């Protein structure tokens, strides 16, 4: 049974998808803490509705590593094993990443390495991609860069807007994030160079 | 009925896929010329076996645009409408591209903009991508960069080698290149910024 913490900044729809899968017994994990860096994140309200411990650690005006030390202190106090970023709009410091080697997961709404950074769906549309998708990856020191655990492709349609494409991708995000967390919590993955392989 | 020229440097398996679709009457086009820059390209032999006019215009030691002018002279003499690159291992000059605006197609074994350049399948494996694929795009002045007509995704498996992944992608290349050429020959596409949209 792994202790999982969720870090979010907004609605946290991927947090809810992870929570659903965990509460349904599909993942050997329990959510021991939900952290938001934004006091008004709807995700905090959802967390409390679901009876998770939920704290806001405001980030405005705080230096990156000083902030991360505050967060890690809260995680350590709950013996957190795995950290899931679910729309957490801050880059983690190297120091934070090193505290949880290969135990921090993030989800990104494109097939990385295509369209990293913000507004990936808009980037995909403007590039004229015909296929996009989403990626769950381990977090490393670089933005949207760590080893990839699961990816899922999604068609881009001629009539798509940023909203319709985002919605189609989000549906798949809600599928693959629980799948990836399950693999990690069951210790089924090993990383060779950048390749994440399923342990036999 | 569009006059199509094929440019290749090697075996030209995508040339054969295009030829199969054209000879089966699936594309309103005829292949009026096959050009290789390599005298020993197996694609030239295949072309002659299929009774296409096939010429070698050797490129070794010739300046880019000077070479391209030799090729375009041959294309012009056959009233070529559409040019398909099928493993043609040379970058076209801007001058060549401008002679056939939005009428030069290329196929690339990745989901562009991911993994441009050479050895895309090896790049995808080494990056640890879980999804890759192939792209048919219009050729512009930059390498592997023009507007995308069709893309198709392909899973990357844990046990994949460069060879097995390449074979899985190639199977889809042989599907989407004829699809894309059909759209172009039927004048069914329009380009808005970088987006290639199907005309209603």
List the domain count of chain A as a whole number: 2
The portion of residues assigned to helices of chain A is: 25-40%
Strand content of chain A: 25-35%
- Report low-confidence residues of chain A grouped into runs of 5 or more: none
| Helical/strand content category of chain A | alpha/beta
- State the CATH class of the largest domain in chain A: Alpha Beta
What distance lies between the first and last C-alpha atoms of chain A, to the nearest angstrom? 20 Å
What is the mean pLDDT of chain A? 97
The rough form of chain A would be described as globular
Looking at CATH, which topology of the largest domain in chain A would you report? Rossmann fold
The CATH homologous superfamily of the largest domain in chain A corresponds to Formyl transferase, N-terminal domain
How would you sum up the major sheet of chain A?
7 strands, mixed
Radius of gyration of chain A: 16 Å
- By oligomeric state, this entry counts as homodimer
Task: Based on the coordinates given, report the CATH architecture of the largest domain in chain A.
Answer: 3-Layer(aba) Sandwich
Please count the beta strands of chain A (DSSP E, at least 2 residues each): 9
Along the chain, the helix and strand elements of chain A come as EHEHEHEHEHEEHEE
């Amino acid at each position: 049974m792994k202790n999982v913490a969720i870090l979010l900044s907004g609605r946290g729809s991927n947090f809810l998808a992870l929570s659903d899968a965990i509460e349904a017994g599909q993942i050997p994990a329990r959510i021991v803490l939900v952290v938001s860096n934004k006091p008004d994140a709807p995700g905090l309200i959802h967390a409390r509705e679901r009876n998770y411990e939920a704290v806001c650690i405001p980030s405005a005006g705080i230096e990156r590593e000083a902030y991360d030390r505050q967060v890690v202190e809260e995680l350590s106090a709950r013996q957190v094993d795995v950290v899931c970023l679910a729309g957490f709009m801050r880059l983690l410091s190297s120091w934070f990443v090193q505290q949880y080697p290969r135990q921090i997961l993030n989800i990104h709404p494109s097939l990385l390495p295509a369209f990293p950074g913000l507004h990936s769906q808009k980037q995909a549309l403007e590039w004229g991609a015909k296929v996009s998708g989403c990626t769950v990856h381990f977090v490393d020191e670089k933005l949207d860069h760590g080893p990839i655990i699961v990816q899922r492709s999604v068609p881009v349609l001629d009539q798509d807007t940023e909203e319709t494409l985002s919605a189609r991708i989000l549906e798949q995000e809600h599928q693959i994030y629980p799948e990836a967390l399950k693999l990690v919590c069951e210790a089924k993955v090993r990383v060779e160079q950048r390749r994440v392989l399923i342990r036999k």
